[in-house]
Design a protein that fits this description.
alpha/beta, Rossmann fold
Length: 362
Protein backbone atom coordinates (compact mmCIF):
# COMPACT_ATOMS: atom_id res chain seq x y z
CA UNK A 1 0.00 0.00 0.00
CA UNK A 2 3.00 2.33 0.34
CA UNK A 3 3.74 4.84 -2.44
CA UNK A 4 6.56 4.23 -4.92
CA UNK A 5 9.90 5.41 -3.56
CA UNK A 6 12.47 7.28 -5.68
CA UNK A 7 16.01 7.19 -4.28
CA UNK A 8 18.74 9.70 -5.17
CA UNK A 9 22.32 8.42 -4.84
CA UNK A 10 25.72 9.65 -6.01
CA UNK A 11 28.91 11.53 -5.10
CA UNK A 12 28.74 14.76 -3.07
CA UNK A 13 27.71 18.03 -4.71
CA UNK A 14 26.52 16.58 -8.03
CA UNK A 15 23.10 18.24 -7.72
CA UNK A 16 20.89 15.57 -6.05
CA UNK A 17 19.22 18.03 -3.66
CA UNK A 18 18.99 20.72 -6.38
CA UNK A 19 17.25 18.20 -8.64
CA UNK A 20 14.63 17.40 -5.96
CA UNK A 21 14.10 21.14 -5.30
CA UNK A 22 13.61 21.63 -9.03
CA UNK A 23 11.21 18.69 -9.56
CA UNK A 24 9.06 19.82 -6.62
CA UNK A 25 9.40 23.59 -7.13
CA UNK A 26 10.90 24.04 -3.66
CA UNK A 27 13.43 26.69 -4.74
CA UNK A 28 13.08 29.95 -2.79
CA UNK A 29 10.68 28.36 -0.31
CA UNK A 30 11.49 27.88 3.40
CA UNK A 31 11.65 24.10 2.81
CA UNK A 32 14.08 23.90 -0.08
CA UNK A 33 16.81 21.35 0.51
CA UNK A 34 20.10 23.06 1.31
CA UNK A 35 22.54 23.02 -1.61
CA UNK A 36 26.07 24.24 -2.22
CA UNK A 37 29.48 23.47 -3.72
CA UNK A 38 30.76 21.76 -0.55
CA UNK A 39 29.28 18.47 0.84
CA UNK A 40 26.00 19.79 2.26
CA UNK A 41 23.56 16.88 2.78
CA UNK A 42 24.64 14.87 5.79
CA UNK A 43 21.15 13.46 6.43
CA UNK A 44 18.87 10.95 4.76
CA UNK A 45 15.95 13.22 3.84
CA UNK A 46 12.54 11.72 3.07
CA UNK A 47 10.28 14.11 1.14
CA UNK A 48 6.63 13.03 1.32
CA UNK A 49 3.14 14.43 0.94
CA UNK A 50 1.43 16.31 3.73
CA UNK A 51 -1.33 18.92 4.11
CA UNK A 52 1.19 21.67 4.93
CA UNK A 53 4.95 22.23 4.91
CA UNK A 54 6.36 20.50 7.95
CA UNK A 55 9.64 18.96 9.17
CA UNK A 56 9.59 15.66 11.09
CA UNK A 57 12.45 14.36 13.22
CA UNK A 58 13.82 10.89 12.44
CA UNK A 59 12.96 9.61 15.93
CA UNK A 60 9.30 10.59 15.36
CA UNK A 61 9.27 8.98 11.88
CA UNK A 62 10.65 5.70 13.22
CA UNK A 63 8.10 5.68 16.06
CA UNK A 64 5.14 6.10 13.67
CA UNK A 65 4.32 2.65 12.28
CA UNK A 66 1.92 4.18 9.73
CA UNK A 67 4.87 5.76 7.88
CA UNK A 68 6.64 2.39 7.26
CA UNK A 69 10.02 3.73 8.46
CA UNK A 70 9.93 2.01 11.88
CA UNK A 71 12.42 -0.75 10.79
CA UNK A 72 15.09 1.99 10.57
CA UNK A 73 15.29 1.96 14.38
CA UNK A 74 17.62 -1.04 14.12
CA UNK A 75 20.40 1.27 12.83
CA UNK A 76 20.55 3.06 16.19
CA UNK A 77 19.99 6.52 17.62
CA UNK A 78 23.00 8.02 15.84
CA UNK A 79 21.36 7.24 12.53
CA UNK A 80 17.90 8.48 13.57
CA UNK A 81 19.50 11.85 14.32
CA UNK A 82 20.64 11.84 10.67
CA UNK A 83 17.14 11.01 9.36
CA UNK A 84 14.71 13.80 8.60
CA UNK A 85 11.28 13.93 7.00
CA UNK A 86 9.77 16.86 5.11
CA UNK A 87 6.05 16.99 4.31
CA UNK A 88 5.15 19.12 1.27
CA UNK A 89 1.64 19.74 -0.16
CA UNK A 90 2.67 18.86 -3.73
CA UNK A 91 0.63 16.96 -6.38
CA UNK A 92 3.54 14.69 -7.38
CA UNK A 93 4.13 13.63 -3.76
CA UNK A 94 0.55 12.34 -3.54
CA UNK A 95 1.81 9.53 -5.79
CA UNK A 96 5.51 9.14 -4.93
CA UNK A 97 8.05 9.65 -2.11
CA UNK A 98 11.56 11.04 -2.72
CA UNK A 99 14.62 10.12 -0.63
CA UNK A 100 17.76 12.28 -0.73
CA UNK A 101 20.95 10.65 0.58
CA UNK A 102 24.29 12.00 1.84
CA UNK A 103 26.80 12.29 -0.98
CA UNK A 104 29.53 9.69 -1.28
CA UNK A 105 32.89 11.07 -0.15
CA UNK A 106 35.59 8.67 -1.22
CA UNK A 107 38.11 9.50 1.50
CA UNK A 108 35.61 9.21 4.35
CA UNK A 109 35.31 5.93 6.24
CA UNK A 110 31.96 4.49 7.31
CA UNK A 111 32.94 4.71 10.98
CA UNK A 112 33.29 8.48 10.71
CA UNK A 113 29.58 8.78 9.95
CA UNK A 114 28.71 7.15 13.29
CA UNK A 115 26.22 4.68 11.76
CA UNK A 116 26.38 1.84 9.16
CA UNK A 117 26.02 3.99 6.00
CA UNK A 118 26.10 1.07 3.53
CA UNK A 119 23.51 -0.93 5.49
CA UNK A 120 21.16 2.07 5.59
CA UNK A 121 21.65 2.60 1.82
CA UNK A 122 20.85 -1.09 1.28
CA UNK A 123 17.60 -0.74 3.26
CA UNK A 124 16.46 2.09 0.99
CA UNK A 125 17.75 0.36 -2.19
CA UNK A 126 15.71 -2.77 -1.32
CA UNK A 127 12.54 -0.67 -1.10
CA UNK A 128 13.12 1.77 -3.97
CA UNK A 129 11.07 1.57 -7.18
CA UNK A 130 13.39 3.90 -9.05
CA UNK A 131 17.04 4.71 -8.26
CA UNK A 132 18.61 7.86 -9.71
CA UNK A 133 22.43 7.69 -9.56
CA UNK A 134 23.51 11.28 -10.20
CA UNK A 135 26.90 12.39 -11.56
CA UNK A 136 28.26 15.69 -12.77
CA UNK A 137 31.02 16.24 -15.38
CA UNK A 138 33.65 16.96 -12.71
CA UNK A 139 33.03 13.86 -10.54
CA UNK A 140 33.32 10.80 -12.76
CA UNK A 141 36.09 9.04 -10.84
CA UNK A 142 34.98 5.75 -9.30
CA UNK A 143 36.44 4.98 -5.88
CA UNK A 144 35.85 2.26 -3.30
CA UNK A 145 32.67 3.82 -1.83
CA UNK A 146 31.04 4.07 -5.26
CA UNK A 147 32.15 0.54 -6.18
CA UNK A 148 30.56 -0.70 -2.95
CA UNK A 149 27.36 1.16 -3.81
CA UNK A 150 27.10 -0.48 -7.24
CA UNK A 151 27.73 -3.86 -5.64
CA UNK A 152 24.70 -3.15 -3.45
CA UNK A 153 22.65 -2.27 -6.55
CA UNK A 154 23.28 -5.70 -8.11
CA UNK A 155 20.01 -7.32 -9.11
CA UNK A 156 18.24 -3.92 -9.24
CA UNK A 157 19.67 -2.86 -12.63
CA UNK A 158 16.20 -2.41 -14.17
CA UNK A 159 15.43 0.27 -11.58
CA UNK A 160 18.66 2.26 -12.04
CA UNK A 161 18.71 5.48 -14.06
CA UNK A 162 22.01 7.35 -14.50
CA UNK A 163 21.77 11.15 -14.47
CA UNK A 164 24.59 13.20 -16.04
CA UNK A 165 23.66 16.49 -14.39
CA UNK A 166 24.97 20.05 -15.01
CA UNK A 167 25.36 19.11 -18.68
CA UNK A 168 24.92 22.70 -19.88
CA UNK A 169 28.23 23.61 -18.21
CA UNK A 170 30.05 21.90 -21.12
CA UNK A 171 30.42 22.57 -24.83
CA UNK A 172 29.05 19.84 -27.14
CA UNK A 173 32.38 18.19 -27.88
CA UNK A 174 33.36 18.12 -24.20
CA UNK A 175 29.94 16.72 -23.28
CA UNK A 176 30.40 13.82 -25.71
CA UNK A 177 33.80 13.04 -24.19
CA UNK A 178 32.40 13.16 -20.65
CA UNK A 179 29.45 10.92 -21.68
CA UNK A 180 31.91 8.36 -23.05
CA UNK A 181 34.11 8.62 -19.94
CA UNK A 182 31.07 8.04 -17.71
CA UNK A 183 30.22 4.80 -19.53
CA UNK A 184 33.87 3.75 -19.41
CA UNK A 185 33.96 4.27 -15.61
CA UNK A 186 30.67 2.49 -14.97
CA UNK A 187 31.01 -0.46 -17.39
CA UNK A 188 32.92 -2.72 -14.94
CA UNK A 189 30.40 -1.93 -12.18
CA UNK A 190 27.14 -2.60 -14.04
CA UNK A 191 27.46 -6.13 -15.31
CA UNK A 192 24.37 -6.38 -17.54
CA UNK A 193 23.94 -6.81 -21.28
CA UNK A 194 21.65 -3.79 -21.62
CA UNK A 195 23.14 -0.56 -20.22
CA UNK A 196 20.94 1.52 -17.91
CA UNK A 197 19.16 4.60 -19.29
CA UNK A 198 21.31 7.73 -19.02
CA UNK A 199 19.64 11.17 -18.86
CA UNK A 200 21.79 14.14 -19.87
CA UNK A 201 20.50 17.53 -18.74
CA UNK A 202 20.74 20.22 -16.06
CA UNK A 203 18.09 19.73 -13.42
CA UNK A 204 17.76 23.14 -11.80
CA UNK A 205 15.52 26.18 -12.31
CA UNK A 206 18.15 28.35 -14.06
CA UNK A 207 18.12 28.94 -17.80
CA UNK A 208 20.31 26.57 -19.77
CA UNK A 209 23.70 28.02 -20.59
CA UNK A 210 23.70 29.69 -24.05
CA UNK A 211 25.47 27.87 -26.92
CA UNK A 212 24.55 24.42 -25.55
CA UNK A 213 22.04 21.78 -26.68
CA UNK A 214 18.96 23.31 -25.04
CA UNK A 215 16.50 21.24 -27.11
CA UNK A 216 18.23 17.99 -26.18
CA UNK A 217 18.28 18.88 -22.47
CA UNK A 218 14.58 19.75 -22.50
CA UNK A 219 13.68 16.48 -24.29
CA UNK A 220 15.77 14.51 -21.77
CA UNK A 221 13.96 16.23 -18.91
CA UNK A 222 10.56 15.36 -20.38
CA UNK A 223 11.71 11.74 -20.92
CA UNK A 224 12.78 11.49 -17.29
CA UNK A 225 9.38 12.74 -16.09
CA UNK A 226 7.62 10.25 -18.40
CA UNK A 227 9.84 7.50 -17.00
CA UNK A 228 8.95 8.54 -13.45
CA UNK A 229 5.26 8.59 -14.34
CA UNK A 230 5.52 5.11 -15.89
CA UNK A 231 7.02 3.73 -12.68
CA UNK A 232 4.17 5.27 -10.66
CA UNK A 233 1.55 3.86 -13.07
CA UNK A 234 3.11 0.36 -13.06
CA UNK A 235 3.62 0.29 -9.31
CA UNK A 236 1.42 -2.77 -8.65
CA UNK A 237 2.76 -4.82 -11.58
CA UNK A 238 6.35 -4.05 -10.55
CA UNK A 239 5.65 -5.05 -6.97
CA UNK A 240 4.15 -8.42 -7.95
CA UNK A 241 6.96 -9.08 -10.44
CA UNK A 242 9.52 -8.31 -7.74
CA UNK A 243 7.77 -10.64 -5.26
CA UNK A 244 7.89 -13.41 -7.88
CA UNK A 245 11.60 -12.73 -8.53
CA UNK A 246 12.23 -12.93 -4.79
CA UNK A 247 10.20 -16.16 -4.54
CA UNK A 248 12.41 -17.74 -7.24
CA UNK A 249 15.50 -16.79 -5.21
CA UNK A 250 13.99 -18.26 -2.02
CA UNK A 251 13.12 -21.48 -3.88
CA UNK A 252 16.66 -21.88 -5.25
CA UNK A 253 18.13 -21.18 -1.81
CA UNK A 254 15.85 -23.78 -0.20
CA UNK A 255 16.78 -26.40 -2.82
CA UNK A 256 20.50 -25.71 -2.36
CA UNK A 257 20.43 -25.90 1.45
CA UNK A 258 18.41 -29.13 1.13
CA UNK A 259 21.02 -30.55 -1.24
CA UNK A 260 23.91 -29.60 1.09
CA UNK A 261 22.03 -31.24 3.99
CA UNK A 262 21.24 -34.42 2.04
CA UNK A 263 24.88 -34.74 0.93
CA UNK A 264 26.03 -34.24 4.53
CA UNK A 265 23.66 -36.96 5.79
CA UNK A 266 24.76 -39.35 3.01
CA UNK A 267 28.47 -38.86 3.81
CA UNK A 268 28.17 -39.16 7.58
CA UNK A 269 29.01 -42.50 9.19
CA UNK A 270 29.16 -43.55 12.83
CA UNK A 271 32.89 -42.72 13.00
CA UNK A 272 32.85 -39.51 10.94
CA UNK A 273 33.78 -36.10 12.29
CA UNK A 274 30.74 -34.04 11.28
CA UNK A 275 32.67 -30.78 11.11
CA UNK A 276 35.36 -32.19 8.78
CA UNK A 277 32.79 -33.87 6.53
CA UNK A 278 30.81 -30.68 6.12
CA UNK A 279 33.89 -28.49 5.63
CA UNK A 280 34.87 -30.79 2.75
CA UNK A 281 31.42 -30.32 1.16
CA UNK A 282 31.39 -26.52 1.59
CA UNK A 283 34.97 -26.08 0.32
CA UNK A 284 34.31 -28.00 -2.91
CA UNK A 285 30.58 -28.35 -3.67
CA UNK A 286 31.34 -29.34 -7.29
CA UNK A 287 33.00 -32.54 -6.09
CA UNK A 288 29.60 -33.54 -4.68
CA UNK A 289 27.56 -32.15 -7.65
CA UNK A 290 25.59 -29.84 -5.32
CA UNK A 291 24.87 -27.14 -7.91
CA UNK A 292 24.79 -29.46 -10.94
CA UNK A 293 22.19 -31.73 -9.34
CA UNK A 294 19.88 -28.71 -8.81
CA UNK A 295 20.12 -27.90 -12.53
CA UNK A 296 19.60 -31.56 -13.53
CA UNK A 297 16.59 -32.28 -11.32
CA UNK A 298 14.70 -28.95 -11.42
CA UNK A 299 13.82 -26.26 -13.95
CA UNK A 300 16.22 -23.77 -12.31
CA UNK A 301 18.28 -21.69 -14.75
CA UNK A 302 22.06 -21.84 -14.30
CA UNK A 303 22.07 -18.03 -14.59
CA UNK A 304 19.93 -17.77 -11.44
CA UNK A 305 22.25 -19.84 -9.24
CA UNK A 306 23.90 -17.83 -6.46
CA UNK A 307 27.64 -17.57 -5.82
CA UNK A 308 29.15 -20.73 -4.28
CA UNK A 309 31.40 -18.65 -2.02
CA UNK A 310 28.32 -17.09 -0.38
CA UNK A 311 27.42 -20.48 1.09
CA UNK A 312 30.71 -20.70 3.00
CA UNK A 313 29.68 -17.54 4.86
CA UNK A 314 26.06 -18.68 5.12
CA UNK A 315 26.92 -22.00 6.80
CA UNK A 316 29.53 -20.23 8.96
CA UNK A 317 26.62 -18.39 10.61
CA UNK A 318 23.93 -21.10 10.26
CA UNK A 319 25.21 -24.59 11.21
CA UNK A 320 24.03 -27.36 8.86
CA UNK A 321 22.63 -29.31 11.84
CA UNK A 322 20.06 -26.55 12.45
CA UNK A 323 18.21 -27.44 9.20
CA UNK A 324 15.60 -30.09 8.38
CA UNK A 325 15.22 -31.72 4.98
CA UNK A 326 12.42 -30.20 2.87
CA UNK A 327 10.70 -33.60 2.67
CA UNK A 328 10.39 -33.56 6.47
CA UNK A 329 8.62 -30.19 6.38
CA UNK A 330 5.44 -31.47 4.75
CA UNK A 331 2.24 -32.13 6.68
CA UNK A 332 -1.07 -33.76 5.76
CA UNK A 333 -3.07 -30.60 6.47
CA UNK A 334 -0.53 -27.90 5.62
CA UNK A 335 1.07 -29.50 2.54
CA UNK A 336 4.71 -28.88 1.58
CA UNK A 337 6.47 -25.50 1.72
CA UNK A 338 8.22 -26.05 -1.61
CA UNK A 339 5.01 -27.05 -3.41
CA UNK A 340 3.35 -23.84 -2.15
CA UNK A 341 6.16 -21.63 -3.41
CA UNK A 342 6.21 -23.51 -6.77
CA UNK A 343 2.46 -22.90 -7.10
CA UNK A 344 2.90 -19.18 -6.30
CA UNK A 345 5.70 -18.81 -8.90
CA UNK A 346 4.03 -20.83 -11.65
CA UNK A 347 0.34 -19.90 -11.22
CA UNK A 348 -0.80 -17.55 -8.46
CA UNK A 349 1.49 -14.54 -9.05
CA UNK A 350 1.19 -14.67 -12.89
CA UNK A 351 -2.63 -14.87 -12.48
CA UNK A 352 -2.52 -11.83 -10.21
CA UNK A 353 -0.47 -9.93 -12.81
CA UNK A 354 -2.93 -10.98 -15.51
CA UNK A 355 -5.91 -9.73 -13.49
CA UNK A 356 -4.28 -6.25 -13.21
CA UNK A 357 -3.53 -6.26 -16.97
CA UNK A 358 -7.25 -6.83 -17.60
CA UNK A 359 -8.09 -3.86 -15.39
CA UNK A 360 -9.61 -5.95 -12.57
CA UNK A 361 -9.13 -4.98 -8.95
CA UNK A 362 -6.71 -7.59 -7.55
Amino acid sequence: TSKPMVLFLGPWSVGKSSMINYLLGLDDTPYQLYTGAEPTTSEFTVIMHGPKLKTIEGIVMAADSARSFSPLEKFGQNFLEKLIGIEVPHKLLERVTFVDTPGIIENRKQQERGYPFNDVCQWFIDRADLIFVVFDPTKLDVGLELEMLFRQLKGRESQIRIILNKADSLATQELMRVYGALFWSLAPLINVTEPPRVYVSSFWPHEYHPDTHKDLFLKEEISLLEDLNQVIENRMENKIAFIRQHAIRVRIHALLVDRYLQTYKDKMTFFSDGELVFRDIVEDPDKFFIFKSILAKTNVSKFDLPNREAYKDFFGINPITSFKLLSQQCSYMGGCFLEKIEKAIARELPDLLGSIGLGKKP
